[in-house]
Amino acid sequence: MPNLTDYIEEYIKKMLALSSDQCIEVKRRELAGKFSCVPSQINYVLERRFSPERGYLVESRRGGSGCIKIYRINGEQAKILQELIEDACKNSYDSERLRQLIERMREEKIISRREAAILEVVTGKDIYEALGLNPEQSIELRHRIFKEALHKLIKPGY
Amino acid sequence: MPNLTDYIEEYIKKMLALSSDQCIEVKRRELAGKFSCVPSQINYVLERRFSPERGYLVESRRGGSGCIKIYRINGEQAKILQELIEDACKNSYDSERLRQLIERMREEKIISRREAAILEVVTGKDIYEALGLNPEQSIELRHRIFKEALHKLIKPGY
DNA sequence: TTGAATCTGACCTTCTCTGACCAATATTAT
DNA sequence: ATAATATTGGTCAGAGAAGGTCAGATTCAA
């Protein structure tokens, strides 16, 4: 009944549960070997079942003794991230609201201080007003930028 | 899991930490001997892990009693960024040019991949075109956003 | 039956490591 | 002094070892 992807997912989750720090390291080839499948199957599983949206982070290194690291980001963080994305995608926050969101993301360590700094600058109203955009355009643009940036950041691989 | 390069990097960093003045001197052969590898491996490590972009400076002297000096430097990144910014500020780069600049900064490790992703999104032309801005406004805005974001990043503390 | 999820394989990129050969500098012999 | 030699470090191409990507085949479920 369950398929290969399910088994691999289950296996990884067990490993994570056994790990002390919510973080495991695997070799793609080895793991694939353990399930007698092609290595890229592992990528598929990671993409589908261990995405940021589901509360996981994946990092990897190529080359000799390369590996794949899988982190569980704490449930709170994951929830906040989802909220933020949904929120931000619904509709136009004013610049103060956006600023608060960014601040919160930084506090929750979803983004770094530098990333927050960039986002604050590019979603601040000063830039747009100085250019003679009307308020509607300005809000729309900030909103758009924020959304796009967030989408980029939660993409697998980032 | 760590590989030879990691070990050598770690060793050098420990030495640096122990040094009083953020500067150490090593013999390439000796160091290679300590890790049972070929001498050029040391060059590889220095190139990959102790680049200026990562905040290090390497000097060497050949010949009898030659040696390699490794310094930890501060503020070098800021200098590189300053130059880039000045260039970008003088010449109003188009979106492709900006993209290349961002790419280069990422390659040089001045900004992270995530930071690069944000910058690429916010300076890409797609966002502005969809909003019906005329080309001049669009260019001006991208330019401004890029400048502001970078200025923020090189502020002390970032 | 049809569209989404799963799975495979061919090909690609990145990182590491080695070895042969090159370049520079100090030391020693003449 | 000058030339020869020894001692260092530098460069580069290539092999090998991971992991990544993507299109297409297959399977599954509505």
Protein traits:
homodimer; about 160 residues; mainly alpha; about 60% helix; elongated; DNA-binding
Q: What quaternary form is this?
A: homodimer
Structural class of chain A: mainly alpha
Give a short account of the largest sheet of chain A: 3 strands, antiparallel
- Give the N-to-C terminal Cα separation of chain A: 33 Å
Q: What do the pLDDT scores of chain A average to?
A: 81
Strand order of the largest sheet of chain A: 1-3-2
Low-confidence stretches of chain A: none
Strand content of chain A: 5-15%
Share of helix among residues of chain A? 55-70%
Q: Count interface residues per chain for the largest interface.
A: A-B, 30 and 30 residues
Following the backbone from N to C, one meets helices and strands of chain A in this order, namely HEHHEEHHHHH
Q: How many distinct helices of chain A?
A: 8
What would you note in describing this structure?
Two copies of one chain form a homodimer. Chain A is mostly helical. Helices cover 61% and strands 10% of the residues of chain A. The first copy, chain A, is built from eight helices and three strands, in the order H-E-H-H-E-E-H-H-H-H-H. A three-stranded antiparallel beta sheet of chain A has the order 1-3-2. In chain A, strand 2 and strand 3 form a beta hairpin. The first copy, chain A, is elongated. Chain A binds chain B through residues 25, 64-65, 67, 111-115, 117-122, 127-128, 130-131, 133, 137, 140-141, 144-145, 148-149, 152-153, 158, and chain B through 1-3, 111-115, 117-122, 127-128, 130-131, 133, 137, 140-141, 144-145, 148-149, 152-153, 155, 158. Chain A binds a DNA duplex (30 and 30 nucleotides) through residues 3-5, 27-29, 37-44, 48, 60-68, 157.
